[in-house]
Amino acid sequence: MSTHLPRQTTTPDGQPSTDADRRVAVRFSDVTHEYGSSGRGDDRTVTALRDVSFDVRAGEIVGLEGPSGSGKSTILHAVSGLLVPAEGSIELHGTDLTALSDAERTRLRRRHVGIVFQRFHLLPSLSARANVALPLVQAGVPRKTRRERAESLLEEVGLGDRITHLPGELSGGERQRVAIARALVTDPDVIVADEPTGELDTATGASVLELLTDIGRDRAMVVASHDDETLAVADRVVTLRDGRVVVNEG
User: Fold this and answer.
1) Please, which residues have CB within 8 angstroms of residue 231's CB and are 6 or more apart in sequence?
2) Rounded CA Rg of the chain
3) CA nearest to 234, candidates 68, 71, 57, 77
4) Where are the beta strands (DSSP E) in the chain?
5) What's the pLDDT tens digit per position in 24-38?
6) CA angle 48-63-202, nearest 5°?
7) What ranges do the domains of the chain cover?
8) Which residues contact 183 (CB under 8 A, 6 or more apart)?
9) Which long-range contacts (CB under 8 A, 24 or more apart) does 8-15 make?
10) For residue 197, what are the CA distances in angstroms to 77, 116, 117, 123?
11) So what's the pLDDT on residue 42?
């Protein structure tokens, strides 16, 4: 694996921060989760996570690595509040997601979590601007504010001249930048990214990683990947095997 070089973050007075200065944004405590084996006509289950514990601090990028089926995607779904584990707790800025109703978790996710998917998940009939603004529609933000916020973010990710383009008119790297802008549009505290460079060539992937590193400076970020170059931007890498944490290196 590539060497992991920690990024320097600062406190409000401009001094280099330490771990103690950065609050815990995400906390997994003894999380276990199982999936039922569908289509078999029996009660067998598959253990996706077993006694998983780790923290992610504000301003920290944590990478998740491990073979397919090791639990990476399950962790991302749990951080996002998309699933409730069978055992353990998951705290988002001190709020235990496992104690909330489905509606409460949805509200918390829409406000505090941004998601970057490997295959972009853009709506093909909507412009780049409309795709970015979509989470604000769900939040009831006025149309003028939505457009201004989406356009500003597209400018920030280098797509100011692609605002009205449809996803089919954009390159893979441009589509991923739209997806990143969409993840940022609600100004979330936490970003989760699933193989964010998996669909991109090496050069385009490098530019997306640079963008992710930049936006992660004041947010907590969890990035799942098989790619060493992607994991190299992390401050710390959590290695999973068969649903268990086997390495948690800083």
Assistant:
1) 1, 2, 4, 63, 65, 223, 225, 237
2) 18
3) 57
4) 24-36, 45-57, 61-65, 87-92, 95-96, 113-116, 190-194, 220-224, 236-241, 244-249
5) 999 999 999 998 755
6) 115
7) 61-81+111-249
8) 114, 115, 116, 191, 193
9) 9/59, 9/217, 9/218
10) 19, 10, 10, 19
11) 57
Which two structure tokens, joined as six digits, stand for 138? 């769900």
Encoded amino acid at 199, one letter: E
Tokens at 174, concatenated: 């441009």
- Alpha carbon dihedral 233, 246, 118, 143, in 10-degree steps, equals -80
pLDDT for res 166: 98
- Confidence check: pLDDT of 15 > 50: no
The values of phi and psi at residue 64, to 5°, are: -115, 125
Residue 6, pLDDT score: 38
- Spell out the CATH class of 61-81+111-249: alpha beta
Confidence bin at 199 (pLDDT 50/70/90): confident
Location of structure tokens 């947010």: 219
> Taking Cα atoms as reference points, which of 111, 55, 80 lies closest to residue 193?
80
Percent of the chain at pLDDT above 70?
Answer: 88
